[in-house]
Amino acid sequence: MGKGGESIPDEEWERFLREAEAGAEGAPEEPSARARMVARRLREETGRPEPWRSHQPARRQRGKGWYAIGLLVAVALLVVAVAPGRVVGWFGGGGGGGENAPLAVESELPDQPPPTEAAASRPTLEQPFRGSPAAQWGDGTAGIGLPEARATGWMSKGRVAQALQKTRDFLAASSLDPGVLRGERPGKAIALINPHQQDVQDYLTTAFRAPSRKNDPLLLFSRFEKTKVRLVGDAVKARGRITYREGKRGAVEVTTDVTYVYPVVRAAAGSDEVARTIVRREVVMSWDDPAKVVVEPGTFSLVSYKVDTTNGGCDTFTGYLTPEFSAERAASPPGDGPEVDPYDRSMSMETRMREAGDAGCGTATRS
To answer: Structural domain of residue 250, as residue ranges?
Structure first.
């Protein structure tokens, strides 16, 4: 309908469709259609002929260590749980309690995983990151590298700086916010996602109402069920970086690749066994030109998102991270999946997903 309720003439509507298909200026594009184009590009790169938001079920494996993959074309889930007797992470490098100097923020992927140490260093309530490389990581957003802004695509240097800050705000609201970590709905994070990207909005609505492999809120958000576990202390360690480039139609395409480490104990009073859940997320978002894409000011369109989770549950689609403690691990049957170091950031998420293939559950080499 036009202004005042007047209908658009057929010839005008047909012209609009032709221009939109041809990519002509002045023909804003629906963001969900753009997402499908990005998904098609990813399919051409990976050789997986699947439509946007379809998924390939993971192959189930039984085992103490879990490394499960539920692969979507642009939405990937990779899950790892910790196996007793095979975990060397309790002895990992980095120390704790200020024993080592903090690392500088990450500016590029490292060329090797962080080292391990021979001495036993179990985490405690006072030092929940003890024995983990994360002991040297930054707290929250301080561990996430933010690049220098420069004019890119349709955005000036100042606009790019704002987009990068809002991108980091999304990471904080989705993966670090105390309320969200306690299982609350991530309203601030959702408010930054383009409301006109209908397929993503449908996913968000379904994910919190009826979580499943296809519609899992953990793909984008970190949440624990507060009646079962609680975080230890006030700090979540993070390591990763934000990068950007010019994308389709002059958009600024931002990629975030961050690993978060959450120390938790059982919710019951007096619990003192500390376990760690490790989540690595890669989220690609497009800050679109509103003259070319239907978007609300201050919001981005999701392009893709991948998740790699250690000790957060394997094929348990409850909408919450479900870490195991020693009693659960001891009762689990032995695992036979591949071994994975959750602290190894030397491999890109794309490579990690490709190498994992359709493996179901595997073993983390450390926590």
So the answer is: 31-364
